[in-house]
């Protein structure tokens, strides 16, 4: 990839003008993701993008186990990115031993991890202080996650610019911020309500709120933790958002308005091998190991077996089902989903994680599914049930995959839309219901099957919605058409052609240039 002249130019100016300072420190970016796969993955991808476009030094900071994973995905021979760990012992915080990532915790334990992650502040402060001693000046900037908002205090104490990287989309994040900060649902008895910053016509529904948010009033632990991190993030010098200017115009308008900050759109942060293809090309084989090098997690099946299974099926005929890295559904919902999928007659790949109430790290149990289910659907080649973790990128980029039944986590949404795949939404937590709403109402690429863990989803409804989307007639066809349009916009945003540069590349270069100029000033 061509390194942007402007950025290199400014970097060179820095090196030439103040030779007393170590140039490494002056172009050093320190990044601090939250302790969750869905956050670490785009942070690493952003670091790789910056690495490709500049000569900057980049250090990703996290806890020992997360750093261990990151190092395994990105060996030193392949990168100049540094990985540094901060001391952290999960059992000191009432968490199970070796639990440093939300993917190994139940929903009720995640709050403890959010809380515990704040105790990293003193050691992060020491780390930056040591860097300054070593290099003679503070890093160029610190980029931290919204949920690590406290990093701004560290940045301020060293007079270093701080930027918040939003790993979610613009619409979903704007809604998440505004609802957590204003509790608009508490100001009405109606199920429907409007949200400050959003047009009056864009109504939200109580059922789109996670039960913890429905019950929150500003005094409980969740409110205090989340509000504090959001408010700290709003004191940043600006925000980077893992989205594309052209696909979320409304969400970006609102996000810029409610934060009052510059927002640079730098998405989709996906492996280049997935972006350099035309969305309309149908292909039956996929690049292997992109998922592993993105997450460092071994799938519950050899990727080749999964690809061979997909390749056996006709183009766009397979439904992929996953609830992401940290969510799952109830046992009753799992049974209904299983029977609905089978009744639909459509081929599917389903990543099954232990249902609510079971040890999230526990072994798969056949009793979670109808009797003989796995064997039956596998024998007919109708379904493949994967345990725990799937090679998601390889599945979504395979030409046999036709749609994605998802919890609407933002990384999954970008991975799916980049391939022009329509979505069947089943949002569960965080900002997922707002993502689903935006994709259904604004983009027209999603139909929501149900939401949350309390819903009584019937097998007949699963069957009906799966058929409607997979049959690609009427509404299903329209969703596919719109998903292909979004895919084109996504790919354009990261395309470079001579002097022409897509909006996300332009935006990333502009961000880097701004940071360098602010250091010069
Ligand atoms: N992922 C995966 N295999 C799985 C589940 C998830 O590779 O079985 C990856 C997925 O490709 C995505 C990330 O994990 O990049 C999940 O992020 P997302 O924002 O979709 O959801 P979250 O896990 O944060 O709820």
TrEMBL record:
EC id: 2.4.1.-
Molecular-function GO term, any one: UDP-glucosyltransferase activity
Catalytic EC class: transferase
Superkingdom, taxonomy of origin: Eukaryota
Residue ranges of domain Glycosyltransferase N-terminal in the record: 28-271
Coiled coil: none
Sorted UniProt keywords: Glycosyltransferase, Transferase
SUPFAM superfamilies (UniProt xref): UDP-Glycosyltransferase/glycogen phosphorylase
Gene3D superfamilies: Glycogen Phosphorylase B
Pfam families found in the cross-reference section: Glyco_transf_N, UDPGT
Family statement: Belongs to the UDP-glycosyltransferase family.
Protein's UniProt name: Glycosyltransferase
Organism: Protea cynaroides
Species lineage: Eukaryota, Viridiplantae, Streptophyta, Embryophyta, Tracheophyta
């Amino acid at each position: 990839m061509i390194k942007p002249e402007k950025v290199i130019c400014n970097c060179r100016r820095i090196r030439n003008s103040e030779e007393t300072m170590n140039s490494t420190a002056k172009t050093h970016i320190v990044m601090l993701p939250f302790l969750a796969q869905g956050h670490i993955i785009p942070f690493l991808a952003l670091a790789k993008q910056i690495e490709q476009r500049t000569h900057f030094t980049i250090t990703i900071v996290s806890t020992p186990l997360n750093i261990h994973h990151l190092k395994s995905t990105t060996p030193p021979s392949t990168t100049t990115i540094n990985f540094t760990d901060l001391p952290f012992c999960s059992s000191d915080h009432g968490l199970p031993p070796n639990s440093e990532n939300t993917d190994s915790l139940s929903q009720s334990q995640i709050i403890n991890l959010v809380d515990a992650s704040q105790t990293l502040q003193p050691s992060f402060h020491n780390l930056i202080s040591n860097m300054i001693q070593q290099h003679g000046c503070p890093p160029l900037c610190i980029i931290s996650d919204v949920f690590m908002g406290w990093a701004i205090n560290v940045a301020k104490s060293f007079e270093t610019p701080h930027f918040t990287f939003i790993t979610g989309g613009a619409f979903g994040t704007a809604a998440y911020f505004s609802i957590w900060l204003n509790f608009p649902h508490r100001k009405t008895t109606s199920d429907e309500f409007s949200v400050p910053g959003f047009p009056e016509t864009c109504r939200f529904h109580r059922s789109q709120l996670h039960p913890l948010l429905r019950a929150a009033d500003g005094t409980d632990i969740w409110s205090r933790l989340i509000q504090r991190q959001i408010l700290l993030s709003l004191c940043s010098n600006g925000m980077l958002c893992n989205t594309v200017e052209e696909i979320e115009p409304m969400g970006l308008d609102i996000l810029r308005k409610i934060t009052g900050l510059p927002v640079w759109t730098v998405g989709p942060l996906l492996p280049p091998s997935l972006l350099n293809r035309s969305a309309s090309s149908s292909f039956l084989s996929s690049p292997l190991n992109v998922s592993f090098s993105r997450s460092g997690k071994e799938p519950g099946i050899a990727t080749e077996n999964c690809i061979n299974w997909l390749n056996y099926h006709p183009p766009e005929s397979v439904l992929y089902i996953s609830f992401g890295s940290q969510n799952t559904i109830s046992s009753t919902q799992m049974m209904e989903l299983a029977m609905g999928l089978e009744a639909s007659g459509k081929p599917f790949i389903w990543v099954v994680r232990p249902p609510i109430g079971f040890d999230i790290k526990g072994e798969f149990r056949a009793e979670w599914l109808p009797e003989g289910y796995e064997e039956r659907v596998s024998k007919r080649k109708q379904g493949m049930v994967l345990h725990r973790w799937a090679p998601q990128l390889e599945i979504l980029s395979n030409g046999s995959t036709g749609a994605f039944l998802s919890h609407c986590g933002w990384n999954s949404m970008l991975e799916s839309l980049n391939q022009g795949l329509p979505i069947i939404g089943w949002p569960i937590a965080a900002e997922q219901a707002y993502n689903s709403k935006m994709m259904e109402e604004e983009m027209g690429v999603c139909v929501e099957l149900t939401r949350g863990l309390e819903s009584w989803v019937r097998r007949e409804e699963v069957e009906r919605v799966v058929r409607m989307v997979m049959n690609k007639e009427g509404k299903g066809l329209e969703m596919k058409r719109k998903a292909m349009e979004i895919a084109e916009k996504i790919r354009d945003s990261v395309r470079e052609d001579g002097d022409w540069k897509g909006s996300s590349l332009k935006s990333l270069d502009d961000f880097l240039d701004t940071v360098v100029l602010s250091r010069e000033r």
